[in-house]
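Example for tutorial group B:
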């Protein structure tokens, strides 16, 4: 149903004004309806249906319609030009005691004032109610301060009863068009608000936790389906205290303090509750409470464990799968192949998407352990307790939901093979101590177990941040770092080896064409040159995703440079370039960190970087090196 804007001006609109306002609505998905003002105002009100989207009116009429109809109201202003026109018109006719008298809203609650000219006076007065209006008129007549009233509809009608000369002030075309634009904006804001509410509902109903949203008066604004399973009284009441009877949770709301993962009992169920207080301009605006049943958490942990073991224990890739023409990368592969012949622990540095696991699998398959298990685990995806049970295993009954007979950990499963620990930088200091002991003693004790199990495992670790920085910040143990970093590898980000971008793109293109069963052609490599000017902060993983998108969505069968450039314009979001540096002990160290990150983010050559920042290569080396 089309939104309808009702325009009820308390003065006669000209055909030209109506025509211009209708033209204003061309190409707008809304309808405008003009209604004549009827007296009493109740008759005008009857002409406005409940389905009206916005009322556009003025003064006491507009206020009355807004109050009675409960429909959004846009006020038609009276501009200074409208006032001047009206005053000039009555002055020309010989009036010298001129009074402008209007409903207070029209002149924005301005205080009364007067202007004295050589042969005339102009007073601007306002009124709030009909009683005020009559009193003002009586005072003006009594003191002989008026010979003409310029006013709104109500003021003019009242002045006529006192036999005063009057002139109805009209809002000009500028004011009418401004009011109509504001009415359109009111409708658009309504839809934006509805869209936000819909998004909030979708988010709430997609969450795994039960969620209740409370306003500043402890009334429940909204909730999701999972909340009804925990709080059945939600269907009957929106009063928080009637729905949630637990005193601890009520205390959280009353104290307006955040509480996280508090174990409470509600409706004979044990749940973990989190309370987040919402504030607007420093004032309490309500709260969001999230609940997770303890049984659901335990089931989720078991599901995660099953998913970990579903990953398989086989390394699929070798060094031949690493696509590169870059000399530094070729040298890195040779170094990694040398590492593969040893038993030393490898630490691979590299940004997200650079292929750290690809190198880890290649090292394993080039080692004498290649026929034995390759086990991979992302340390950043698990809590410390879950990480311990996954790596070390557990005995039966060691925790709620533990599998009957216990479960071997990944260290046991990787016996005589390789264990790849990705995002090792996310491992807590406490757990680093436990892992250090395992690496030194080459034995592991299951959670809840009493015996040590010997393991023969080659460890390969990976990090997407410099662990040396974490050591300086006290977040990583120095002795554990030295134990895992015997053989370091630092994989170059894709932006620092631009000569690999097109070869990788062609490789991914052929792979994705086979996957999507689509055949594309290109004359030479020139259509892919736009790829060289993109920063690829997601590295090869991002490049592969973009190539797959090209294969799926490219509108033609032949790939051209213009087509790829157009794809980038329409498909890729601009990245916000910002650099975050840690607060260090000295400004010199912070400056060094800034230069390192600037150089790391730069997409050109070292020479181009020096030229951009007007420094020599020697100065650059001094600023980013560990030297002073």
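The residue assignment follows.
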């Amino acid at each position: 149903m089309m939104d309808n804007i009702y325009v009820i001006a308390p003065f006669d609109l000209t055909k030209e004004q109506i025509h211009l306002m209708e033209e204003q609505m061309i190409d707008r998905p809304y309808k405008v309806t003009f209604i004549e003002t009827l007296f009493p105002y109740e008759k005008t009100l009857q002409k406005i249906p409940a389905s009206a989207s916005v009322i556009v009116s003025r003064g006491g009429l507009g206020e009355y319609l807004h109050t009675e109809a409960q429909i959004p109201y846009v006020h038609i202003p009276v501009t200074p030009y409208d006032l001047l026109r009206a005053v000039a018109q009555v002055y020309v006719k010989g009036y010298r005691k001129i009074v402008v008298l209007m409903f207070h809203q029209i002149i924005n609650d301005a205080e009364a004032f007067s202007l004295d000219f050589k042969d005339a006076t102009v007073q601007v007065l306002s009124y709030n109610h009909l009683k005020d209006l009559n009193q003002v008129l009586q005072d003006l007549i009594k003191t002989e301060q008026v010979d003409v009233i310029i006013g709104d509809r109500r003021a003019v009608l009242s002045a006529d009863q006192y036999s005063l000369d009057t002139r109805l002030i009209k809002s000009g075309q500028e004011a009418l068009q401004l009011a109509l634009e504001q009415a359109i904006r009111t409708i658009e804001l309504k839809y934006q608000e509805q869209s936000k509410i819909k998004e909030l509902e979708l988010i709430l109903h997609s969450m795994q936790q039960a969620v209740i949203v409370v306003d500043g008066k402890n009334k429940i604004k909204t909730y999701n389906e999972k909340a009804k399973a925990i709080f059945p009284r939600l269907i009957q009441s929106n009063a928080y205290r009637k729905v949630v009877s637990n005193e601890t949770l009520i205390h959280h709301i009353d104290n307006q303090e955040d509480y996280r993962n508090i174990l409470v009992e509600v409706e004979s169920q044990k749940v973990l509750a989190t309370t987040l207080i919402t504030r607007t301009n420093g004032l309490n605006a309500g709260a969001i409470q999230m609940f997770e049943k303890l049984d659901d958490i335990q089931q989720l942990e078991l599901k995660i464990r099953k998913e970990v073991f579903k990953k398989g224990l086989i390394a699929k890739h070798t060094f031949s799968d690493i696509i590169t023409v870059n000399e530094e990368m070729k040298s890195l592969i040779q170094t990694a192949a040398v590492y593969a012949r040893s038993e030393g622990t490898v630490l691979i540095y590299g940004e997200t998407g650079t292929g750290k696991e690809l190198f880890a699998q290649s090292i394993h398959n080039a080692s004498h352990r290649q026929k034995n298990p390759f086990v991979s685990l992302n340390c950043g995806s698990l809590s410390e307790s879950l990480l311990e049970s996954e790596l070390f295993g557990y005995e039966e009954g060691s925790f709620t939901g533990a599998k009957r007979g216990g479960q071997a950990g990944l260290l046991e499963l990787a016996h005589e093979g390789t264990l790849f620990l990705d995002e090792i930088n996310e491992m807590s200091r406490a757990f680093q101590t436990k892992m250090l002991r395992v690496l030194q003693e080459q034995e592991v004790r299951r959670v809840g177990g009493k015996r040590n199990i010997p393991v023969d495992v080659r460890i390969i670790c990976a990090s997407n941040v410099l662990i040396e920085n974490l050591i300086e910040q006290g977040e990583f143990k120095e002795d554990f770092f030295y134990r895992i970093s015997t053989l370091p590898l630092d994989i170059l980000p894709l932006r620092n080896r631009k000569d690999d971008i097109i070869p990788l793109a062609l490789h991914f293109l052929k792979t994705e064409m086979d996957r999507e069963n689509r055949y594309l052609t290109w004359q030479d490599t020139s259509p892919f040159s736009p790829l060289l000017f993109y920063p690829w902060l997601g590295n090869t993983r991002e490049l592969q995703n973009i190539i797959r998108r090209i294969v799926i969505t490219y509108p033609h069968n032949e790939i051209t440079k213009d087509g790829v450039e157009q794809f980038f314009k329409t498909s890729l979001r601009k990245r916000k370039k910002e650099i975050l540096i840690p607060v260090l002990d000295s400004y010199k160290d912070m400056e060094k960190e800034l230069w390192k990150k600037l150089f790391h983010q730069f997409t050109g050559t070292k020479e181009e970087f020096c030229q951009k920042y007007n420094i020599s290569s020697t100065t650059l080396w001094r600023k980013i090196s560990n030297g002073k």
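Residues 304-309 have pLDDT under 50 and may be disordered. Compare this with the pattern of hydrophobic and polar residues in the output above.
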